[in-house]
Amino acid sequence: MSKILATAFLLVYYKILQIPGNRALSPIIQFIFMNSSNQAGFQTFSFVHLATVAVIIFVAFFLAFIVRTKKFKALRLPISRLLFTIQIANELIFLFIIISIGVWDYKWGLPIQICDLAVFAVAFSLLKHNQFVWELAYFWGLGGTVQAILSPDIQFTFPDYAYIKFFLTHGCIIIGVIYLSVGCGGKIYKSSLLRVFVTTNIYSFAILIFNRLFDTNYLYLCEKPSQPSILDYLGPWPTYLLWLEVILIVSLLFYYLPFYIAEKVNE
Fold first, then answer.
1. What is the largest CA-CA distance in the chain?
2. Higher pLDDT residue, 7 or 35?
3. Among 68, 108, 174, 254, whose CB has the most other CB atoms within 10 angstroms?
4. Is the Cα torsion angle 193, 195, 197, 203 positive or negative in sign?
5. How far apart are the first and last CA of the chain?
6. What is the reported pTM?
């Protein structure tokens, strides 16, 4: 089923791309991808923004509670495969489009943001369990993605493709994490905190070096995003990097808390 859906997605886009009259990409896709249907652009905490967040949360807990019941427990594998397919197809379609219209650039288009890695970690965890990968999926997924959907660094609003792609990517991460933890029983341990903390810092340091070498700004380690975000309240560079370290520690402890409480209750 998942393979059929993925093939269908790609075939639909491929057929649209074959419309005569454009060497790189059809005018239809250029219009969808490059133009905003709302001249006002994206507005944080607007009705559309809050409605999107509400849908993500509803779907996440709905799927999680569905597969916890005996009646629908057999749906775990099909739902996991479906979520995997949507995540990977979404990323492949986006990559195909931006390369086709010639806007891809290494300065922003490499899949090395925390949310990008969370996509792959969640997708992997949906099909196969590896404790370390699951820990990264959980903490990076929630820690990086929650902030991203609450203060998105995007210019366009619904129904622009850029808006849909952004929230589909981040929404699927949150849905996947909640589904795997609440619905499928994924566990997080005290030892997970140190592993994820060390891994995050090592990776961030490597990306900081990459940014300096290639004049990029991945993970926003060199400057703040253009849209309003939590970084605006953390002081100038490099002060906000130190605060991000504090936020990382608090975030790890906060997202571990449900597992800590569950562990104490079950003792």
1. 68
2. 35
3. 174
4. negative
5. 41
6. 0.81
